[in-house]
């Protein structure tokens, strides 16, 4: 079936208009008018043509289950921002075993939410991916250990069970180990951590990985006091790397650049709306979460923390989604220093800043 774009629809409607006028004027002495409709008539033609144009389908793969971590995406869909751009967006949930990069490369998704360090590692392994917008601007990772464990310094993690997410989210943990003189293959027992903190609560982990916007607050909400925890901030530890970034396949981007620009424009609009209207946005998120998996209070806290990461102090709305060169290079340097990648990446290929720049144009 041939798809009609907006321009084709307008041309066909204009031709129909002319034929109608010619038919109406054929029986009189006055020549039929060939003037195109103007004013409200022209606007009606525009709106009708736009409504008839088919929406372009786009699949966005999340790196985790639906939650306020992805508020901008859910808000953009709920508020119609994607549809306004002519897009029909499907949001695909992630999970502990979902490898976002593979989903994008295999065509199961068009756009994926992954970590910037993971993008670097996967590009080094030959996957043709490119980042088109950077969401989280600094590390959200925290290690937590019960004070009763006695793990009051990283060196005391030796011989302990340490939680680690897999899929696309393990690289900061590995860098933390290397930075503190621990061989992640020999000195600690790395344990695959689920997307709850049950293993930590059940003493199956001595040290659990968490994010400041999610799992850390799950621990506090359980009744554990901050004073009862040893907390290791990855940013303070010198291994904080950029996290949530939007990636696409190089080949897809070449063929669908305009679609990418529209998707990024709508997503950034969604994020700015979510940050400015947090109570409403939490209500939107609660429609998408798995029933019984979370609470409105927790999602409220999550969005509050995410807002600080996506739009940190000093950022304007126009800067949301942008690449800060210093932070990008720091992520590259840490990845090189701790062996996540072997050589300096070509950032001119790995990052396409022009998509966000074009999305900002009126």
Number of DSSP-assigned strands: 10
Q: Determine the structural class based on helices, strands and strand pairing.
A: alpha/beta
Strand coverage percent:
5-15%
Order of helices and strands: HHEHHEHEHEEEHEHEHEEHHHHHHH
Main sheet overview: 5 strands, mixed
Spatial arrangement of strands, main beta sheet: 2-1-3-10-4
Q: What is the rounded Rg?
A: 25 Å
Helical coverage, percent range: 40-55%
Mean pLDDT: 88
Poorly predicted regions: 1-36
Number of helices: 16
Shape: globular
N-C termini distance = 32 Å
Walkthrough of the structure:
This protein is 43% helix and 14% strand. The strands form 3 sheets. The chain has a 5-stranded mixed sheet with strand order 2-1-3-10-4. It has a 3-stranded antiparallel sheet with strand order 8-5-9, with helices on one face. The chain has a two-stranded parallel sheet with strand order 6-7. The model is unreliable at 1-36 (pLDDT under 50). The chain has helices at 6-25, 39-52, 71-78, 81-84, 100-105, 116-124, 171-179, 198-201, 215-221, 250-255, 257-276, 278-288, 296-310, 325-337, 347-350, 354-359; strands spanning 56-61, 87-92, 111-115, 129-134, 141-146, 161-164, 189-192, 208-211, 229-233, 244-249. Helix 7 links the parallel strand 6 (161-164) and strand 7. The two termini are 32 Å apart. It is an alpha/beta fold.
